[in-house]
Each structure stands twice: as structure tokens, then as C-alpha cells.
Amino acid sequence: MRNFRKHWGVARWTAGLAAWAAATGALAQPGLTRVDRLMYLGNPTCTGAKCHSGDPKMQGGQLIGDEFTIWTDSDPHAKAFKTLSNAASKAIASKLSIESAASSARCLSCHAADVPAGQRGERWALDQAVSCEACHGPAEKYLEPHAKAGWTAGQRKSLDVKGMREAHGLLDTSNLGLRATMCTACHLQIDKDLVDAGHPELQFEMGWYNEYLWNENYATHWTKPEGDPVSARLWAIGQMVSLDAARAQVESWRAKGWDASSAEGLVALYGKGAEVAKKHFGAGGVDALQTAAISAASAAAAAADLAGLAGSAANQQQREIVLFGVASLVFSCHDLNGTEPPDEFWDIYDGAMSAEGAAFGAQVQALAAMAK
Description:
Layout: H1 18-24, E1 57-59, E2 62-64, H2 67-74, H3 87-95, H4 105-111, H5 132-136, H6 151-158, H7 161-168, H8 176-187, H9 192-196, H10 206-210, H11 230-255, H12 261-281, H13 286-289, H14 296-307, H15 316-337, H16 343-353, H17 357-368
Antiparallel strand pairs: 1-2
Helix pairs in contact: 8-11, 11-12, 11-15, 12-14, 14-15, 14-17, 15-17, 16-17
């Protein structure tokens, strides 16, 4: 069994996905993941034994108290800025005549909370990487009140996502559509000249990425709800939001005269995944999926249909999107049944990660069969 903590879980600062925002009626303007008028106080304001680097305690169904410690030790976003100084980043920067990746706005837009100078608090720093406030919003207004037990939950009852952002600068990541939009704004948006210069091609599958199960060295700093098929919900919402993001990337690449064929492949795959999600979980869109009734039977049926797309995965990037999605749906079945995936799950998963062609299809089908 892989060692991962049931304690669940960056942001791109230059633009949000207005298409999703318009569809949901929330935050329909550029700069979705950046609040323009408030101060970003910096990671140190989140630390302390009585804040987010102490002993965890259960509050409202979540373990609260050690999030910053986990993030520092085991979250890839904490290392995002540091990677800009490694040999690979330097090589990419050199090919694009970028003097330093660690000071280039093109790189900092996803590797740090590169906010305007007027919004940088005394304890803010670029090397804090994709920081607490990168995903949760500038802490100027919510820092003190959110320390009171139950305050955030209370705000969610009286304010919607847009209201929490406007009133407190707080980005409510419990809204899975917002969370997916924030993630895909970096994980599915990149200029092709960066890829051509050596940057890894981007891919994203919300369920598996959200729990960091794609890398056993990482751990999440948020609590996974008990008895909720959140992995399936995240997968389904992620397919729809990723489809919008992939379409936006195709349009961007075409507008700049770049070959968009690889991005078009992602559009096709996410489109098929979105259809599977609609078939089994309802066709109401992102908002409806946040509260849709998802059973073990519907998650298992979705896993089987998704596994049937294995043959359309044209490369490793696309194979992993299918594999991670099937794995997320299997996990949801086990969550709903109150069980853990057996060790055999991981054996099949590891085999699928290195398989191609018919062998990959067989492994993914075997994995989907474990969803019951």
C-alpha cells in the first residue's frame, strides 16, 4: 500500500479561465487567481504553533494546524521557485534568450506568487514559491478572523465564491470548479516555444493530481472528506475544466502561428472524458457536479468507459491522463465502500505506467475492473 495521508489537496497570476467563470456566474474577469486590491503578507504569517505549523486538531471535519509543515516538507509547489535555478531551467532560458528564469515574468507567472510591488507585504518573498496565498488569496483581510474556529465555514454559508473573494480576498478552494480552474491555469497553459525549448509538455488529471498519488514522495495538506466520492467528483469536474483550458491553449498556439496538434490531441481526449462524466454523473455542468449524487456503481461504470478510451491515447502524456482518471474512479468506489485498494491495485497501476499499445489497454481494463 502506498503511504499517503488522507489530509487533501498553482495558481497562474496572469489570467483565469473566463469561460468557466462566465458559465458558473463566478469571477467572470481576468486575473481569477489574483486579488488586485489586497496585500499578500507572505508565508511566515501562516506559521506558528497556534496556526499552521503546530499539532493538528480536527475542526469541522478537517485536520487543522500542521498544513504549513506538510507543505514545506512534502508539497511540490513549495519547490516551484527553486526549480527555476536548476540546470534544465537554465538551458531552457538560454535557448529563449531569457537572462534568468528566476527573474522572468514568463516563468514566475506559474513558479511563484509574482504579485505587483504595491501588494507585497513586508514578509512576502518570491522564493516562497507557489505559496499559501497563491492558492488561498491575499491574507490582509482574512488572516485574523480565519484563526477563529468555524469562521471560514460560516463565511461559506453566507457568501458564494465570488462573495468570499470580494469581501475577504479569500479564494474558496472547497469549490472544486474554482480549484480546477486555478490548477489548469498553470498546468494546462504554456507557450509552445517553452515546450520546444525543453519544458515538459503539460497534462493534468484533477483527481489523481489533487491527492498527489502520482508521486509517493508528496503529501497533501488538506483533509479528504469521509464517505464522499471526491476523487470521482474531482475527475469529472477536472475533465470539463481541462477541456476548456486545452481549447484555450489551442487558440493561443494557433494565434501565434505554432503547430497546435499536440494541444488538439488533449482537446479530443478531455472531450471524450467529459462525455463519460456527463453520461454517468449528469449533464448539468461543473456546478451540478459539485453536488451530484455519485454512487459506487456509477463510478465503476465511468471507470469502465474511461478505460475503453485507452486505445485513443496517442502518447505517454495522454496515457497517463486516462490511467490517472481510471485510478481516481477506482479510489472513489473504495471510499464509498469504506475500503482501501488492495496491493494488487498498485502492481497493475505500476505496470500500466510503463506499458504501451494493447498492453496498456489490458492493464487499464484490469484496473477499472477493481472499481465495484
